[in-house]
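User: I'm putting together notes for a lab meeting next week and I want to include a structural view of one of the chains we've been expressing. I don't have a solved structure, so I'd like a prediction I can at least talk through. The sequence is below, exactly as it appears in our construct file.
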Amino acid sequence: MTLPPVSTPSEARASRPVQVAEAIKTWVVEHGLKAGDRLPAEAELIARFGMAKGTIREAMRILEAQGLVKTRTGPGGGVFVHEVSRERARALLGNYFYFKDLTVGDIYQLRQALEPELAASLAGTLPPEVLAELEDCINSYAEPSKTIEEEREQHLTSLRFHAILAAQSPNPLLSFCIDFMVALLSDLTVYRELYAPPNIELWQKGRTFQSRLVEALRAGHAGEARQIMVDHMATARELMEGQEAVMAQRFMVG
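Assistant: Thanks for the context. Below is the predicted structure for the 254-residue chain, given as structure tokens.
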């Protein structure tokens, strides 16, 4: 098998190893290979794709860096299809945004669009153990924090509540997007110390919204769950942007 003609400008700019890596991914999908399946030996890949050994090896290094294949040495070794974990995908995508100077507003703009729909879709579907996990999460910040370290942990745990919900979605794209936004906001909260100005209103309103949401989810009230999350996200955005402004002012004064 030789590579197909270049058909788009982006493909034209791609190096041969990148094109081969893409062709191998396509071949894996077309042949229904799954995580753990062995790829053909190097000599067969050279013949199949009509490329030199160096190009094939570079293509395999690209795929390994992307987490899509894994090399094992020793008896029974070789190159195997590898499923990218959510954590690795989240880390790789996070690297893209590392220098983008994201704001709280940037993240909440998407949260406000997606999380109400997530909440509505999960109403009446969550098993008792997940509802219990959500309640345990809320109960872990039943009282206002007494130290700055406790304040930070409460912020992060309240965000984990949303990660728990995201993990329940049958839509893998929606689940990943919300989980990724929660991770971004958690990192932003820690990096910019957005938890540092204690905010009793943020704690109180956030906890109230989450408690009401769990009850709506348990009762299967999709419309109510959606509206609670709409109000929760709008309130959280306003208060978190206030936290962001306070910390920015502190930085400028300092």
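A couple of points you could mention at the meeting. The chain has eleven helices and two strands. The first strand starts at residue 69 and ends at 72.

User: Perfect, that's what I needed.
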